[in-house]
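Researcher: I'm preparing a figure for a lab meeting and need a structural model of a single chain. I don't have an experimental structure, so a prediction will have to do for now. The sequence is pasted below. Please return the structure as tokens so I can convert it later.
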Amino acid sequence: MIGLIAGIDNLGNGLAIAALLFTGPLAAGLGAGVGVVLLSAAILALLVALRSTQPNSVALVQETGVAILASTVATMAAGLEGAPEGVRIATAFAILGGSTLVTGLLFWMVGRLRLGRLVRFFPYPVVAGFLAGSGWLLVEGALAMVSGRHGLGAGIAGLAAPMVAVTAAAAVGLAGLLVLVMRRSASPFAMPLVLLTAALAFHAGLPLLGVTAEQARGWGWLPGVAGGDGFSLPVPTEVLALADWGRVAAALPAMVSVAVLGMLGLLLNVSGIELAQGRDIDADAELRSTGAANLLAGALGGPSGYVGLGMTLLAGRMGARGRGAGLATAAVILGGLFVAGWLVSVTPVFLTAGLILFLGVELLQEWLIEARRRLPRTEWLIVLAVVLAIAGIGFMEGLALGLAVSLAMFVYSYSRLPVIRGRHSGAELRSRVDRSPAASLHLTAAGAAIEAMQVQGYLFFGTAEQIVGPVRDRLERAGVQAGGDAGAQPLRFLIIDFRHIKGMDSAAAGVFRRIRNLIEAAGATLVLSALPDAVEDAFRNCGLDPDRDPVLRRAPDLDHALESCEEALLAEDGGSGGGADAPLLRHLEAMTGPHPRLADAVAALDTLHLEPDEVLIRAGETASDVFIIGRGRVKVQIALPDGRSLRLRTMTAGAVVGEIALLLGQTRGADVVVETTATIHRLTAATLARLEREDPELALVLHRILATTLAQKVTLANRLIEQAAV
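Model: Understood. Here is the structure written out token by token.
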């Protein structure tokens, strides 16, 4: 049953497609055109059925690509107006077969290289514009079939002839009837029945009007070809010998556009079948099998095609699960070949023109009118622009316009995405280094001289400019440039973190060269954090050398970049009393304020002298003491599953470490390793318990030190959470 339905549908479409291609000055090739179209349809149905990964696939000759070729063939025929009829017809078959060969080759190559997924990234508005534009070309083709003249203006002028006007009115009426019937009925027999009824009504009406078949043929109501029982095909040697290959070469852009549009159509249909039937289909395998079928069809001079979405879904609904659906379709089409000549001679022109007009109106309705509800206004305007360009200029021009506008819209939309992930001054964003209270106080006051900027995404000419503005504003606020606020703190370090950058083009690298010059004029330093290799290469190509340029400095990550800038600011304030060599008593006074018992608190602590790489705290141990760093540095780290160590924090003079596990009675959660020669003061749990019994006032001082440390760490943790949430 599905073979009968699809076969009859192919026969009707084949007649209409051939009539669309071989009209006017090419009308003598209509018989061979019908034969080659139907033979190609049979080959496509047969080979796709045998080789498709979707067993019940039903392949069809697709009219969207034929619409483009009809316009191309008409242009060719107009250019060869003075050439012999055989040359024009042979050139038309060469263009038709050449287009199918290009399509088959493209399908097979893309499938062989497994690039089917890449084609799905083609801009959707452009695809919709192509399909809607193909609908317009079908409408123009229907007008040319009726009037015998190509071009919208010439076709409309041809309607002045009474008999042509009658044919046009009948075609419009049939198209309107098909639209109405197909909207109201989902039966696969609906369209064939309408077409069959219209044809029978036409032939029944001729005797009633006293019109003979010869008169109807003379008036253009029937094709101007003699009937026959068999079918004819173009002779390959004649096509090779007679075709104007210069005209064929000129049609190559249209052939490529047909191939690309066909590939998009195939992949869209495959996606639809996947969704409807709930199974994955290997798109690359479908491209290869369909490509082979099109190569064979193209060698015979026929049109291209691929799996039909509607017929394949109908086969599934009717219970056809195996390859019999496609095989039966091919058998019905081959059977129809033997009466193709007779079918051509008795099929009214209004019937084929009305069917082509219906197909064109359906494409315009779905991809232009209904797309207005599905698409945002800007994307729908792209669809409209493509259709207008195809109608007014040409198909390739419409293709170029659609791609250019889509690219421009993409660049514009992407350029509006924020590339600055976060901006913080050094007063609010700190490195993971616990410092003495005096050093922390100094960084709170002087940290505004550090500006950290995290960037994200892909930097190109449309987005990189977003970085220049904030840098210039920051410098102007510091009074570096004319008109700025001279009271603002000057910028000393600009950190740009590239951790979330995916790539960069040369134009964006040029923007960073401008930023580098601004930083140099300000007497500041540009710190490049987490610089990817690709970005570094782009920098070097535009003349920026992170290793030799005195204005530039690199850092492995944002934390180390902040740490190096903080160290530089602290080194300039060596007399603040908060340095690494400051006595422990001074650190405690800066932490809690003056207290008469602080000296006793220091005396209650044990003193340890440790060398680099010695372990102060080991993960998993029971917490029995807390440490205050008097001099040197230690690092808190955890062991990763692969054996590497990850640094969590660095602790410097005045920092307290280990108090959380001690107060909560937990085991140690991380290792603490000495980085530089260090003097460390230890408060044991036993000492603290003894002082709570014997000297509560001194124990309270020690608890106050621990509480102050915990409060500072909670404040820092909250700040980091706020920054991460921005």
